């Protein structure tokens, strides 16, 4: 949400969970077979594949959100629900295509941002300062 | 279960608030574990006080509904994009706040 102070606020924690044990700091295990939950438009590629989410997935969803803000639309919005019924599969393929190729209309720093989030290991601590520096390069 | 969000008014202070409302099935008490609105309220309370997290005011039950009352904001990012794509400087400002929020929220809770 955007406040009257023009600052942004994070809402909707209905699906939030700990990524590590608050007492021992042990990271949650990388489990598979999870159902797709939440808003499909912004969900990460690994989440499509049923992999447990962690800090890296928040950042990948953030990259999709930033692309949505810049372009006004994401490449996988408005895909017709095909007869095959694999609508989520079609969305997943579009997301994978976006990570592979540079698109001239997208700031190259945002592509780098997205590729960095995709390179993170499941329990790896993201380098938030590096991402903050990349963001400053968006307009160039 | 997905909740609905309403505009409310704090009649004592005359201020607008946001209401998140979720219908509970008869057997679910307002603070039962399977109420994900209660789960959400507890998370707000845990992270509250951190810049970038709305303040929750109240949680309770009213008839067949669980209700959370929280601070009201202006627009969602979706509302803003409906008015057209954002200029890059606005995106840089928002993106910076999002990325710096992540470690701040985590450090606040852990």
Secondary structure elements and their pairing?
The complex is a heterodimer of chains A (140) and B (110).
Chain A: H1 45-48, H2 55-71, H3 87-100, H4 108-119, H5 128-136
Chain B: E1 4-10, E2 15-23, H1 36-47, E3 56-62, E4 65-71, H2 77-82, H3 88-109
Antiparallel strand pairs in B: 1-2, 2-4, 3-4
Written account of the structure:
The complex is a heterodimer of chains A (140) and B (110). With 140 residues, chain A is an all-alpha fold. Chain A starts with 44 loop residues before the first helix and ends with a helix. The mean pLDDT of chain A is 92. With 110 residues, chain B is an alpha+beta fold. Chain B is globular. Chains A and B meet through helix 2 and helix 5 of A and helix 1, helix 2 and helix 3 of B.
Cα-atom radius of gyration of chain B: 16 Å
Roughly how many Å is the radius of gyration of chain A? 16 Å
Q: Terminal Cα separation of chain B, in Å?
A: 28 Å
Calculate the mean pLDDT score of chain B and round it.
Answer: 88
The CATH homologous superfamily of one domain in chain A is termed Transferase(Phosphotransferase) domain 1
What is the residue-mean pLDDT of chain A, rounded to a whole number? Answer: 92
Helix content of chain B: 25-40%
Taken in chain order, the helices and strands of chain A follow as HHHHH
* Name of the CATH homologous superfamily of the largest domain in chain B: Phosphorylase Kinase, domain 1
CATH class term of one domain in chain A: Mainly Alpha
Q: Based on helices, strands and strand pairing, what is the structural class of chain B?
A: alpha+beta
The assigned CATH architecture of one domain in chain A is: Orthogonal Bundle
Describe the global form of chain A. Answer: globular
Low-confidence stretches of chain A: none
Strand content of chain B: 25-35%
Amino- and carboxy-terminal Cα gap of chain A: 27 Å
